[in-house]
Amino acid sequence: MAVSYHPTAVHMGEDAMDTLTQFSGQRVLIITDAFLATTDLVANAKARLGQHVHIFDGVIPDPTTETVAEIVRMSNQVRPEVVIAIGGGSPIDAAKGGLLAINHNGHSPTFIVIPTTCGSGSEVTPFTIITDQNGTKNALVTDDVLPEIAILTPEAVATLPAHIAAETGMDALTHCFEAYTSTDAQIFSDMWAMHAIELLFTHLVPSYQGNQESREIQLYASTMAGFAFSEAGLGIVHSMAHATGARLHLVHGRINSVLLPRVLAFNAGLPNPSTPEELRVVQRLAAVADHIGIAKQTPVESANAVINRIVEIRQTLGIADTLTGLGASEAPSPALFDDLASHAIVDPCTTTNPKPVTQADLSGIIRDAW
After folding, report:
1. What is the enclosing helix (H) or strand (E) of 150?
2. What is the reported pTM?
């Protein structure tokens, strides 16, 4: 049985920040990073919330269990009625980790997210990624971290640097394709994923180039992608990206950009698909090609056309096509490939990959991507 469940209320548009006025006077904890804490966006949020606003600005990229512990310590002092995460994936993940601990302590504040990047989709998902003391990224999945409200305001992404628009947009595109080909894909997740693919194929490059209308649409497409993978799950692009990012200290969206074309080709069994799982992926990619107007004479040719379009977008965005080009911090070796694969094979995202994989399969993809 499939379930379509979206409890997050999405408030969007130029006046979306006015949603915060209903919480004016309540005890509020804003969770963000040191830079965003100094911006007009946070100041505008505070202006709508009244006098009882406290700010935790200690979030770092790839938030750790220690960051979560610091948030819990501050929450125990503030006892917030409302928790607001402002930022990209890292502040949202950190807030979710803190909120999970807070809720288990018997305190359940209203949870609001204001995303400032156009990629993670975390404002509408039950997922969070927390790095432990061993440097391992742990994917946690629970409805306890679903936000009650997501505020999508163009103000939050208007000055997003081009390189961040690029890498977060490619993360969103990866969410779409992994959700659309997932073993748990269904009619509602397909709807979100397909429309988001169409929007990102049209607007990601203009957004990267600074077009503000496209930047806003990229934000909305990212949220649609979040809805899609909340229902359908992801796949081995994210499994390997989690392992590779933690070990090699590379940007998540850029790793996805390198891996996505390779994984789609692998899952589709290209150039000669043979298994039912591979043929299903080919048909799904061919459906994408048909939807966006690049269909070819055969399903395999159409699947290749979609993969080639992804590569073209990645190149236009200035993202390298190998992990070495991204600046991998270690020299390649069979032992390294196997270690990364051993972490990826047990990642929760692997369970919904469209075809079964072995650790050797993952090691080979990582080697090819180096």
Report:
1. strand 149-152
2. 0.94
